[in-house]
Each structure stands twice: as structure tokens, then as C-alpha cells.
Amino acid sequence: MHPPESARHDSAAPKQLSGHSTASATAVVETPSWVKRVRPQGIARVPTHAVRPVEERRSYARAKLTLPLRVKRIAGQREPGHHILRTTNISSSGVLFLYSECVEVGTPLEIEICLVDRPFGRGSVRMRTEAHVVRAEPASRPGWHTLALSFDDITFERDEPLPSRFEKR
Length: 169
Hints:
The protein is mainly beta. It has four helices and seven strands; from the N terminus they run ααααβββββββ.
């Protein structure tokens, strides 16, 4: 690691000030401690939560969560055999997951995502949403497809009623 730029020129300062009095030269030669400290290289000290990567085009940050997901309807038709799938990532505006069939972009889907799963259904929270496909690609897993959905309408189902202090009046 190279010393900071200001530290390299400190040795030259006493030579330039040799014609001045000793008291004033001492005041200039004694550099403050903040000048001598090592400065961070690059952006290692920038808080990553405050700066979004340049290539990021999404409006809402995605969380890499594997939550249980069920496809209830595709284009209004009830989906037979509710297989439990897993989300790849999710945000407040959409979800990405693997599905065994190819679904065209723009197709409406109704899905259910389990956000909180408690034993005996005490405190479980499920999100039911109507969404539409915004991207469909073949997945690396043979026979599967990656679907990206954008949420259109979201409702939450809870197994326990909300305490009265949270109810709308």
C-alpha cells in the first residue's frame, strides 16, 4: 500500500521552511494526525445499502428468499395439482420462480406465497396475488422455465385475527 499523497511531501516541508524561525517551522512540520492516517482505497468504505449498483435497473430491490409458492390459476383456469414451488427472489412489486411449464409473457396468474408459516396455523400469513408474466425464459434445470411476475393486486390472509389496535376504524 502506498502512503497518502500528503505524507509523501511532508519530508520536503522542513527544507522549504528552513529560512523561517524555528517556532513557525515547528508549527508547520507537526502535521495533524488526521493527515497521516491511511485513507481507504476505492469504494470499500461506502455503505452498500445506500448506493445501488450502476447496472441495476429495478425500481424495487429484490430479496433472495426461497418462500413456498403455489400457482392457483393461469389465465383464469384453475391449475390442477397444486405443486408447492419455491421463489427465487421477491420484491414489493414482483417475484421470480421456476415453473414446469412455459407461460407466455402477459398471461395473468393467481399465486399464493406463504410469508410466515407457524405450527397449527397459528399466526401464518399468506399473500394471494393476481399477477402477470413479464419475463419467461428456459431455466438451467431441464424441462423448467424461469418466470418473472409483476404483482397487480395483493391481499394477505392471516390465520389469526389482527389485534383490535391494528384494525381500521
